[in-house]
Amino acid sequence: MEMNVSKNDEQVVARKAGGLNPAIILPILYLIALAIYLFVFGNPGNFKADPRIAGASVAFADIESKELHPESFMGIIYMGGPVVHILILFMITVIVFSLERFFVLGKAAGKGNLDNFVVQVRNLLNQNKIDEALEECDRQQGSVGNVVKEGLTTYKALSHDTTLNKEQKMVALNKAIEEATTLEMPMLEKNMMILSTLGTVATLIALLGTVIGMIKAFFALGSGGGTPDAAALSIGISEALINTALGIGTSAFAIIFYNYFTSKIDGLTYKIDEIAMSIQQSFAEFN
Questions:
Q1: How far is CA 201 from the centre of its chain?
Q2: CA 90, CA 254: separation in Å to the nearest integer?
Q3: Which residues share a beta bridge with 47?
Q4: Spatial CB neighbours of 234, under 8 Å, sequence gap ≥ 6
Q5: Which of 140, 168, 195, 250 has an alpha carbon 20 to 30 Å from 82's alpha carbon atom?
Q6: Cβ atoms of 128 and 154 closer than 8 Å
Q7: Transmembrane segments in this chain: where (predicted)?
Q8: Distance separating alpha carbons of residues 130 and 160, to the nearest angstrom
Q9: Long-range contacts: 36-45, Cβ < 8 Å, 24+?
Q10: What pLDDT band is residue 225 in, cutting at 50, 70 and 90?
């Protein structure tokens, strides 16, 4: 019994280790986001030519932000201020982890059509063809195939067991399926919290950038005595709006992808539960 528990623990750790590791990926994505902000959006080519602008980024030029005149959309985004690179990080993170979840969940569904697999296995169970059902699991693979295979393997072993009564066998079968499902769930749900968190945090960080921009705008409004600094005022307002737009866009994408992948996970677990019920019914009928 202790050996089985140890084996299960090792399998859980292995599945949790699968996929992208946020502790490694996020610092890399931060550097990429910072580079995009400085050298792509802050490229001198995105701004009106000025002899004071030199180098790979206007960030290193000896010129005030109110004297920069963006001539492209990238330049406009750069004028959103220092919070922009954080929002770029959030957007890249949403894209990267959404792609990761897309491939992981696609692999979890298996190689063949999942609905056809469920129907085929249920038909074989109704005919008590366990070996053929196991072959279907080997062809399907994926998380659903793994759980069903574990359940069918236990089914086959219990059907030849003479030491347990029927009720005990049903309990053992149900436990085996639950344990197999538990082993697969960490892989399915990994990194989903990142998308969920960014759906909220991106809006809050954007709000911070908006507030900073408005502070600059009102400061420009009152710093010139009787004559407001129109350039600084417009920069402050545009900075506020740019941060708002980026934050709302990032948050929207994060929420959409989170809900999409959550529905995919729910669909997979439903298929597992559907076949698990069929396995239990078949065992009760034929044993």
A1: 15
A2: 9
A3: 70
A4: none
A5: 195
A6: no
A7: 20-40, 76-97, 194-220, 240-261
A8: 13
A9: 36/85, 36/88, 36/92, 37/78, 37/84, 37/85, 37/88, 38/85, 40/74, 41/74, 41/75, 41/77, 41/78, 41/84, 42/78, 43/74, 45/72
A10: low
- The identity of residue 162, as a single letter, is T
Give the DSSP per-residue string, the chain: -HHHHHHHHHHHHHHHHSS--HHHHHHHHHHHHHHIIIIIIT-GGGB---TT--SS-GGGSSS-GGG--B-SHHHHHHTT-TTHHHHHHHHHHHHHHHHHHHHHHHHHH-SS-HHHHHHHHHHHHHTT-HHHHHHHHHHH-HHHHHHHHHHHHHHHHHHT--SS-HHHHHHHHHHHHHHHHHHHHHHHHTTHHHHHHHHHHHHHHHHHHHHHHHHHHHHHHHHTTTS--HHHHHHHHHHHHHHHHHHHHHHHHHHHHHHHHHHHHHHHHHHHHHHHHHHHHHHHHH-
**Residue whose token pair is 């929002």:** 87
Burial 117-145 (b: 16+ CB within 10 A, else e): bbebbbebbeeeebeebbebbeebbbbbb
Specify the residue for token string 């602008």.
53
- Residue 284 pLDDT > 90: no
- Is pLDDT above 60 for 3? no
In the numeric block, which tokens belong to residue 189? 């749900």
